[in-house]
Amino acid sequence: MTSSAETILFVDDEDHLRLAAEQSLQLDGLDIACFAEASAALPRIARDFAGILVTDIRMPGMDGLELMTKALEIDPEFPVILVTGHGDVDLAVQSMRDGAYDFLEKPYAPARLISTVRRALDKRRLTIENRVLRRQVGQSDVVEARLTGRSAPMGKLRDQLRAIAATEADVLIEGATGTGKEVAARALHRASPRAQKPFVHINCAALPADLIESELFGHEAGAFPGATRARYGKFEHARGGTVFLDEIDSMTLAVQAKLLDAIQNRVVTRLGSNDPIDLDIRIIAASKLDLAAEAKADRFRADLFYRLNVARLRIPDLDDRREDIPRLFVELVGQAAARYKMPLPNVPGAILTAVAARDWPGNVRELRNAADRFVLGLELDIAMPEVADGLLSDQMAAHEKSLISASLTAHGGSLKETYEALGLSRKALYEKMQKHGLSREDFSESR
């Protein structure tokens, strides 16, 4: 049995032809939806619709050719099979040049209808599968480009983000200040089917308390003193796209209640109006605090937390992915040089080694500031940190891994230059790289 998603839309104004087609296709295990008017079938057609269209040419109102034109405007690769009388064969042939998949001349045998429909469904299935694959490749590139790093925590984060991006689930992103929660949110949006629609960033901590409702939900003219004209709220502006609620933990409990209603029902009402406005939006919220703990302590609404906590991502601290620091620093130096319109400086291995060894409590944001200072020729604070808690063997292993990563980054993956710089033999470097799960290819400049 063919999946019900692979539906044949059959349009003909003659009752007996619709009935005959329905019986023939259903007996062959195919799903069919019949329509007496072209206008009734058109709303079913979309870029991601897995079915096809079979339509008569001569019909009152919107005819088959107009329906085909509108269908191909929605999706130029959508298979349309035209049904024609003997006198319209030339017209049907011309229509194939204009994008029709095939045509059937009345009277046609049921077997001919079935074979033509099955070929069109096979073509549609292949088209949809290719689009999914291209989208997955594009998602991978977007995510990889924005969330770099070879460490296990970053690999896990990218895998989770790719899986969530393809869905419509709301997302809660948690992480310390400076870890890159907004970067992750933008990557998620860019990797999603909503990528071509707006991404609206709302800094909840920066919203004026007396204007929060107006900013989020909009207002009508005269809703309050100074409201001289109607204004879209940020939720309305994001329709079809993504709303990113940054620092949502800073919102008061009263505002959280109003926010919950909008998120729960996907409806807003402008201040000064009684007319609800439907929303087609995805919500991504970010917090530097553990919202589960905040909700338990009654500092955050539990019902809002559970509504947001459909999918939860945790952005790792730099300390949890120390081997990423050297390459990330080099990337940030490149960005800073471009931003300040300055020559790209060479980053010595000694700098990368010290950068990798230093603690970064401000995470990527602090590391970016250091990259800026390096490009501007200012002094870097890269003193070695105090010994952290934990087993000495674990600390030594982490430090050794960061030093080797830094040297490999500095020398573009060249093993010879790396083991000479570290004062190791080639064999010793190989063994240590294998021990720490490091691969030369990950540091190659061609990557």
Describe the model.
By secondary structure, this protein is an alpha/beta fold. Helix content is 47%, strand content 12%. The chain is built from 18 helices and twelve strands. The strands form three sheets. The chain has a five-stranded parallel β-sheet, with helices on both faces. Strand 4, helix 4 and strand 5 form a beta-alpha-beta unit. Helix 6 packs across helix 7 and helix 13 crosses helix 15. The longest helix is centred in the N-terminal third of the chain and has 37 residues. About 1% of the residues have low confidence.
Name the descriptors.
447 residues; alpha/beta; 5-stranded parallel sheet; 12 strands; 12% strand
Number of β-strand runs:
12
Helix content: 40-55%
Low-confidence stretches: 384-389
* Whole-angstrom Rg: 30 Å
| Number of distinct helices | 18
Largest sheet: 5 strands, parallel
Order of helices and strands: EHEHEHEHEHHEHEHHEHEEEHHEHHHHHH
> What is the 3D form?
globular
Distance between the termini: 46 Å
Q: Please report which band the strand proportion falls in: under 5%, 5-15%, 15-25%, 25-35%, 35-45% or over 45%.
A: 5-15%
Question: Mean pLDDT, rounded to whole units?
Answer: 86
- Class based on secondary structure composition and strand pairing: alpha/beta
